[in-house]
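subagent[fold] <- orchestrator: predict structure for attached chain, return tokens only, no commentary.
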Amino acid sequence: MEKKRNYHVKFLTEKDVALAEEVCAKCEDYFLIEQGMAATEENARAIITEIPKGKTKLDKFVMAVLDEADKPIGLIDVVADFPRKGQWIIGLLMLIPEERGSGFGKVLYQVIKDWASDGSADSLRIGVLEENNEAIGFWSHLGFEKEEEKRQTYGEKEHTVHVMVRNI
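subagent[fold] -> orchestrator:
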């Protein structure tokens, strides 16, 4: 039985880079896989400010997940109607290591799914680095299926990215 969590989210703007940076620093393992080095302030800023081509700030939602003591324990980045109308992309669902494996990621996914569904989405999409086996397992368990593979470079590292989709 998953324990009941008291958490809340804070929508982030450029003024909140330090909050995003705090989560990124604790998730060093992810950034080592992604770019071969620890996260920088610039990585945190990019999570908040980078917007896909053809979208606006109004289409992108970046949230810090805060625990009972207002400590940041995760980051969520979602873009509505991307890459097409009706499909929302989860750019990021990142939890600090102490929170992983607790069932909390599944709870956050359910919140995103319900929110997207309320926003007229018919499916969700996420890109997962091929080397990130835990994440591939997590998303597969939630019913996401690999639609395609893409090559992507982050920092100095080139990756195969599994583009995974789930109808909702």
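orchestrator: received. Logging for downstream: The beta strands are 8-11, 60-66, 72-79, 87-95, 123-129, 145-154, 157-167. The chain has five helices and seven strands.
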